[in-house]
Amino acid sequence: MFKKNATVSHERVDTLIGKTSKFEGKLDADGTVRIDGEFAGNISVKGDVILGEEGKMFGDISANNVIISGTAKGNVTTSNQLKLNATGKILGDIYVSSLIVEDGAIFEGKCTMKNASLEDNVSTLNPKKAKA
User: Which residues pair with 45 in a beta bridge?
Assistant: First the structure.
């Protein structure tokens, strides 16, 4: 889904937290979630999460792809890609397969990048590491 110059279509958003909305709790969803207001709690999505420029997230995000243009205070875990736009701010740790950070973005935390195929290759080359 995230190829070079690809964007997430706003027409395919399944769940929207609007600019004047505040939500507190836990959100589990299958599709795309967009937050333009405030969300306090954890999000677990099989699809994608978009945090708009005015969006504020206080909690952890787990999704396939995540785009951050607003402020996220919490950990972000993606099975695919995290894109931190120029207006975006993450205060927390990130766990990703792919990371794009635009100039001007703010990130304060630890980054862990995981590539399953690379780990498989390392395990094959170093059998002792595979058993550890």
Answer: 29
pLDDT in tens, 42-89: 999 999 999 999 999 999 999 999 999 999 999 999 999 999 999 999
Q: What are the extents of the domains in the chain?
A: 10-131
Question: What per-residue confidence (pLDDT) applies to 12?
Answer: 83
CA angle 78, 111, 84 (to 5 degrees): 60
Length of the chain: 132
Task: Using the CB atoms, write b or e for 89-103: b if 16+ within 10 Å.
Answer: bbebbbbbbeeebee
Cβ atoms of residues 112 and 94 within 8 Å: yes
Backbone angles phi, psi at 9, to 5 degrees: -70, 130
